[in-house]
Amino acid sequence: MVIEPKIRGFICLTAHPAGCEQNVINQINYIKSKKAIDGGPAKVLVIGASTGFGLASRITSAFGSDAATVGVYFEKPPAPGKPGSAGWYNTAAFEKQAHDAGLYAKSINGDAFSDEIKEKTIALIKKELGQVDLVIYSLASPRRTNPKTGVAHNSVIKPIGEVFTNKTVDFHTGVVSEISINPATEEEIANTVEVMGGEDWAMWIDAMKEANVLANGVVTVAYSYIGPALTEKVYRKGTIGRAKDHLEATAFEINDSLKAIDGKALISVNKALVTQASSAIPVIPLYISLLYKTMKAEGIHEGCIEQIQRLFEQRLYNGSTIPTDDKGRIRIDDWEMRPDVQAKVDELWKIADTESLKSIGDLAGYHGDFMNLFGFEVPGVDYTADVNEVVEVSGLVS
Ligand code: NAI
């Protein structure tokens, strides 16, 4: 079928298999253009492996370190006449490339928050890999059913304590407007922590430790975000920030629990990037379009794959101590948070409106990245051609 984008706000209902495949090949080529990661991981589990930072982590492990990878994700398979989700096609493309390169790669599609998917993943690792030496936790989800209580929780993106009013942009039309978001209730804060906090990460690591599938010296990393004062009321000091505080505190607990096997739990604070998760957060798209413009002008712009390659090579596997901030976090958002970059974004923010954004922001870059997430507007792909929407994931465990 010929697949066209069907956009509804910050989501695209269709995805293009050939565009997703090209995106994955481009990321693999980037990793291959870098030198192999010395002392990199050998057997890796990526939870949230199909898009964004998780996919980049899987690609970096496999093609930068020849690692065997198991990917867990929650994606929609295609059916005749009905394209699957982007993460499905990304994984199909990744596994094809990995298998062609002789690398072990298998996937589990289902709810990572459930006991069932944890058990299935652990059984697979036990049977086929024995143990893993790296566990990446890269889930971004709007909801979670807690397996202990059976209660379903929905996360919200809201400020805490007071109404937050600021500028935002509709990244499809370029219209800048003001939005006001009401503060979250205590219940909404607690629900967001249930979904995006660290409890599920700890459950994964506990279950894996119990099953003896974590290698001696195992490293586990979860991704966090901080960002500037401009966005902190809606992000870091809002509901999602509370969840990230919880995730970061959980790293210390997991770290303690891994001491017996000489393991480590770490947080990596990553850069703001266009992903399915971040497009849904008000204010962030305007910030990102000004940030992209500034970082591109400085020659320091990075996408997910560049961020994760640098995280692996210069932080996790740098052959020496892993550098962290005073709260024990790895900072790979260092270029985003550079004082000169933030000063420039602040200056641009003050004058940003619908008219000025055309020249002071990188809305085209934002929009292009957004379309690319779903395999559209990828250079070299013929979107008028008939493509087979029913693509299999070769390493999918049924
Ligand atoms: P994303 O939306 O691209 O990826 C989310 C992944 O989680 C996908 O693989 C998806 O299939 C999987 N997933 C969602 N719900 C699931 C479930 N119930 N069971 C199994 N898999 C599920 O998100 P992104 O942006 O890569 O985020 C990953 C992490 O990085 C998050 O913790 C996010 O807060 C963090 N981060 C994101 C930044 C950004 O600007 N995008 C910046 C810094 C950190």
TrEMBL record:
The lineage of its organism: Bacteria, Pseudomonadati, Bacteroidota, Sphingobacteriia, Sphingobacteriales. Substrate binds at residue 225. Gene3D superfamilies: NAD(P)-binding Rossmann-like Domain. Monomer. GO terms for molecular function: enoyl-[acyl-carrier-protein] reductase (NADH) activity; NAD binding; trans-2-enoyl-CoA reductase (NADH) activity. Belongs to the TER reductase family. It comes from Mucilaginibacter agri. It is an enzyme of class 1 (oxidoreductase). The keyword Chaperone does not apply. Residues 324-387 form the Enoyl reductase FAD binding domain. NAD(+) binds at residues 48-53, 74-75, 111-112, 139-140, 244, 273-275. It catalyses: a 2,3-saturated acyl-[ACP] + NAD(+) = a (2E)-enoyl-[ACP] + NADH + H(+); a 2,3-saturated acyl-CoA + NAD(+) = a (2E)-enoyl-CoA + NADH + H(+). This is Enoyl-[acyl-carrier-protein] reductase [NADH].
